[in-house]
Amino acid sequence: MTASLPRRRFLRAGLGTTTLLLGGGSGCSSSRREPIKFATNPWPGYDPLYVAREKGFFDEAGLNVSLVDLTSLGASRRAFERGQVDGCGATLVELLLAADQSGIRPQIAAVVDYSNGADVVIGSNTLAGPADLRGLRVAIEPGTLHIQLLALALASVKLTVRDVLLVPMPQNAMPAAFADGQVAAAVCFPPESNRLLEKNGKVLFHSGQVPGEVVDTLVFDSSFVARRGPEVQAFVLAYYRAMEFMEQHADEAHAIMARRENIDVAELRATLAGLHYVSRQEQRALLAPDGPVARSLDHLQGAMMTLAQLRQSRSLKDFLIARDLIAASGVAA
């Protein structure tokens, strides 16, 4: 999704869980409990969590939250699959892979943003567009939304991923690989995308050309939601409280976020221009059975099945999204 920050279970836990979540309000004791361990990678969509921590919103909600800083989406997903964290920031790619490869039941607590130009395919400035990638080496981080965006870029010129040479590497290794000529292009987002542009890179394709296709979510394990559903709801509400703070006190919030991303405020704001934060009020429509997330999931799943990255297909309802809970959170005070 935009600038160079790496991203990329509320779902049906059964009627009993939904009742617990909806009926329990915040349901949090004022005493500090076992931590909620939540993994994130650098990406502005998740940064309101750090605003919530710094401003004490988690504490005020009675939550003991441990934010686990990891370097990539893949690292966050692996920690989630291994049970090292209770939840993580994830794109739909991580959601599908976690469900397919680990047997856990990930549940989406909220969609936090969608990429609106932040995620990009960057190539040498000698390339005119995606069509020129045929036969060239393209860097992607395996198991991330990179494959989704690359497939979309190539499909726009009637190519497929089989028409390029995929070079797997962590996103933070891409600037050096590009500068050294090891790859002709890379799929990435800020801050690494900014580094590639500084090395005479050129944007060949961006997520703004496929609006609503690339989303970021807050995801929890279904067993955790079953045990501690009211805290998950309070966690999401603290996120949205941080979002409101960001709207009212942009300078202070952006300074917190920039420190988290290890970039300056100007670069952060440039990155924010490439994404759309999803409000509480937008959740119900976004997560409707025939809504944008369901359509995006189906589109992505088809590409991943073609690449043999998934063993079976799923629909959004298989992830048991508690849309009623999320909508209730959206109107909560």
Low-confidence stretches: 1-30, 326-333
Question: Can you tell me the CATH superfamily of the largest domain?
Answer: Periplasmic binding protein-like II
Structural class of the secondary structure composition? Answer: alpha/beta
Question: Mind telling me the CATH class of the largest domain?
Answer: Alpha Beta
Radius of gyration: 19 Å
Distance between the termini: 30 Å
Number of individual domains:
2
- Please give the CATH architecture of the largest domain: 3-Layer(aba) Sandwich
Provide a count of the helices.
14
How would you describe the shape? Answer: globular
Mean pLDDT level: 84
Count every beta strand, where a strand is a DSSP E run of 2 or more residues: 11
Q: Fraction of residues in helices? A: 40-55%
Spatial arrangement of strands, main beta sheet: 2-1-3-10-4-11
Beta strand %: 15-25%
The secondary-structure element order is HEHHEHEHEEEHEHEHEEHHHEHHH
What would a concise description of this structure say?
The protein contains 14 helices and 11 strands. With 333 residues, the protein is α/β, with parallel strands linked by helices. Belongs to the bacterial solute-binding protein SsuA/TauA family.
Describe the structure.
With 333 residues, the chain is of the alpha/beta class. Helix content is 41%, strand content 17%. Strand 6, helix 6 and strand 7 (165-168) form a beta-alpha-beta unit. The two termini are 30 Å apart. Residues 1-30 and 326-333 have low confidence and may be disordered.
